[in-house]
TrEMBL record, chains A, B, C, D:
It is an enzyme of class 1 (oxidoreductase). Its EC number is 1.13.11.2. It comes from Halarchaeum rubridurum. This is Catechol 2,3-dioxygenase. Residues 300-319 are annotated as: Disordered. SUPFAM superfamilies: Glyoxalase/Bleomycin resistance protein/Dihydroxybiphenyl dioxygenase.
Length: 319, 319, 319, 319
């Protein structure tokens, strides 16, 4: 199945639990500069300045930390039903989410695969920015962030970890039509990292492999910034707030993008700001790029040419 | 037909005629910084620093100016045959191009639609950059441009003009699966501009309408630059070479991108450098944005919030 | 006299009249993003985000437009008295300004030279930014501008026009120790532009020549921005506010800096935002650079390599 | 003595020894992108793209590593003689350098102070860039760097270390008229860092204190880059060459500037690339900024808000 035949259009949003919703709102809205589109029934809904959908991050006040679900938007309404059917045929346990159960969203399904809680939906509201915050550029949503906040533009990708990554990767390619753009191999030629996409982004979704027996985890959710200047300014905003990021700005060799990582203390959710040119992959006949441990270092973090931050993921909550 | 069902993967290249190949090579390689991948039988083949394919611009030494063909790459080899079949069923005159007839390219077909010379192909070589110019970032092709040259990263879009644009636009949407992202309407509500895409780019291909009876023309081919700094530096490079661009850097409201336009004197081909954030459109349920003449001015050029340069296109050569 | 022997340390501020103080406050604070340090007795005092002094712009509610005075700060308190003495010895009419008469400022003197109203002062308050707006970087004053506003960093230079420029230029060099960095000559070799500095900036003060008999005028006051991104963003901020600048971003050959010009409707004061590398001139043995009309065009405006905007100055008010 | 009364105009150049001149030329010219203005008698002379003087770095083929001298340019020719006189009156051993002994330079004097080898000169050649490399912007020297090289614009500052810093600092202030802009204090309130300037730059010269008895050392020579994009690109250039810098891009709190540090293996000379807004200090009544260990960490390196790289200096050679 090619990525054009994939039922999935894009990464839609991530929902996380939090131990303190007010503190998470301070972090995501007042420091990170996400827009709070709605707060209802103990859930806060956020989006970036150029996200069209109702939310690309939901934060649930539950006294726990951990990711509740990772949601993909399908290309058609029918694709949601088709996926449900094929999951059930496969023996997976599918949960049906009513329209409106998640604010701003239509009917959806949820399923756990390889230890990760996925959601698939098509119908979603696209509220305009409030009067006064709306951009005169109609191809943007909000005009600008307020002062002294980072201004995330749009959701970019999610990254998870598990010990069953090879099977997980096969499922993404064979069943869901994701294209494998890049992979990371140890010096004994075992694959430990996969960067997948259904869009021309370098990745919409990535998996990092854990040792056998380790619990599946959520690594980070990424938002895109326009430029290196924005990324650097993000560092300055954190410094002005007295917040130490997980990693100051650096450059990944894999995906060729510039990064900064910072974690919300209340929810434990790690956000990667992702900027710089990266690359867009329009090729229909792509051979996955292979990076070897010896070329870019192992788990070493924060390198300019390197693999990225150490892999301390966020456990999914028990429910 | 949705853009995912489109047979087309991307804009592949444009081929132009030139009155002086050496002068065109000076312009495209030594000033604009495109990489010359091959020069054979009176044709020079160029690509940007991150273009994977053999060429994204071909320049044909024929003593004429004007665009020879606009080539789209299909998603599959079969799609080329299917398109040929459907064109012939429609009564269109299809030309078959042998593998290798265009250097680096496999079998292709050509057809004239609405006065524009289109090509469709799938098979193409992807030569690595020569030793010494190759990037250690494997997701890039060339490491860098040489000094005092602009460094176009990748082909972005093509823009044409004709008097039969509404029918042309319908064909692109209905037969080829292009998604209409934005359009421009005069104050009496007639559409005079269409911005189409099969990818998440704001446009892969656009049409500007001409008065009834006017000849179809080619407007410009666009290459992407990473950042505003690159665009500004492009202006400085032209200034150092004593070349006056068609338009110094400015910002388009439509597509939300930053531009600079400059024309090769020998071929008459206008190149737009396209930078800045623009936007990526991943939405499966997009309502085309409508811009009205009164909002952003008419044919006025070079405006920050405006429609762009005046529309002096390049006639296709008589053959 | 070398610039190190000059009595002048820097351009301090400009004071302008306005026909509508509230509208000017909207323009300078809410759009241009200057900080309002004080509003008292019908005068509003502004400064940039990294200006240490109490104000670098004063706006006087007087029902008139036009610049009230152009103020230079001296290197020592004594230099103010020495200047007063030498002006009086020369027969100039010196006005003595009491400490506090201009809020935040100590004793000063005013004198009209070549039709321009100059002020010289040394003592001035340097109020910290209010709590909550103060930068944790102690070498900055304010942390950041609020959203959707330009963020001028510091006062840069002032530019005036008169028909007696050659004598005016001699006075600046011989009596005040300004260094001539660049000049502009017409094709018949007459100098029509002078760019002067007592600091390493490309200019602190410039003169444009007018035809004989023309009234002396004030051209513009300039604030510095950090980067090209800031300048471009400034254009976007104006566009979001629906304000048309006098000149969209472009590049000056003279001073090698990037610009954007915009005028406050209520006071008529034109502000130039000045960004980009420009150059710093530390040379003790500088030969002024000469630019000829034929090299960079005449009065043509908005050119990338060009002289800058047309010269429509602001008349000084009759008092 | 104020900085305007200082005999010194600017930092002029640094001369270093090298164990391998060819390798140093490869490093400084082919990687770092400095321009080689001359190679004569076993000395290579370099400058940045906008340095007017004959050289801002000299590299001496002597089989040793270590800095030979740190040269300041005076404001007048007489100042060189006056300094010589006052050094000798003080009992210092002054060496007289003949015109031409250092290529491109007139008469100069050398003196060792606090263990550091200083030179003072006024006369120096200012060769234009060779035809073909000259910028059409007359206020620049070279048009651009060649490809895949960093493009240092101009010399910025030098940084040294010694155990007698307090006396060294007094000499710079009292005898040479340097202004103290910022200082760094340990938690027990001892000053361990001084940032001095005779120009409005945040520093032309800085001292870091060493434990009593430690040998005086040279820390680094700094070149200025225009923008954050240039700094990031510098990182990419090093990565493409397979060179690991001493510190990837980060931000200093002190001086408010962005940095990258890299060392020439053959000479041991550490170069800091210095970019970003920093700040310009035009104030005649400046109170030095005090940074405390508890505010920005101690010797911790590479922090965004931090003090900078660890202090591994370069010993001066025995001669």
């Amino acid at each position: 199945m090619s990525r054009w035949e994939s039922p999935i259009a894009k990464l839609g949003h991530v929902a996380t639990h939090t131990t303190d919703l007010d503190e998470s709102i301070w972090f995501f809205r007042d420091v990170l500069g996400l827009k709070l589109t709605e707060r209802e029934d103990g859930v806060a809904y956020f989006r970036g300045l150029r996200d069209w959908e109702h939310h690309t991050l939901a934060v649930i006040d539950s006294g726990q930390t951990g990711v509740d679900h990772i949601a993909f938007r399908t290309k058609t309404p029918e694709a949601v039903d088709d996926l449900a059917e094929s999951f059930e045929a496969n023996g997976d346990d599918v949960t049906y989410v009513e329209a409106g159960e998640e604010t701003g969203q239509g009917e959806a399904i949820r399923v756990e695969k390889f230890g990760h809680p996925f959601e698939f939906y098509y119908d979603v509201e696209k509220p305009p920015a409030p009067e006064g915050e709306r951009s005169r550029l109609k191809n943007r949503v909000y005009s600008e962030a307020s002062g002294n906040r980072i201004a995330p533009r749009r959701i970019d990708h999610a990254h998870v970890q598990d010990s069953v990554s090879p099977a997980h990767a096969d499922w993404l390619q064979d069943d869901l039509g994701f294209q494998l753009n890049e992979k990371y191999l140890t010096d004994d030629d075992e694959t430990w990292g996969w960067w997948f996409s259904v869009t021309p982004l370098p990745h919409d979704f990535a998996i990092h492999r854990l040792e056998a027996g380790a619990e599946p985890m959520f690594d980070h959710l990424s938002y895109h910034l326009d430029s290196l200047n924005d990324l650097w300014e993000a560092g300055k905003v954190l410094a002005e707030h007295g917040i130490e990021p997980d990693a100051w700005p650096g450059k990944h060799a894999i995906t060729s993008a510039d990064y900064l990582y910072v974690t919300d203390p209340a929810s434990g959710l790690c956000i990667e700001f992702f900027a710089g040119p990266g690359y867009l992959n329009f090729e229909p006949d792509w051979d996955p790029i292979e990076w070897h441990e010896s070329e870019i270092g192992g788990e070493t973090s924060h390198q300019f040419i390197g693999e990225g931050p150490g892999w301390d993921g966020l456990a999914y909550p028990d429910e």
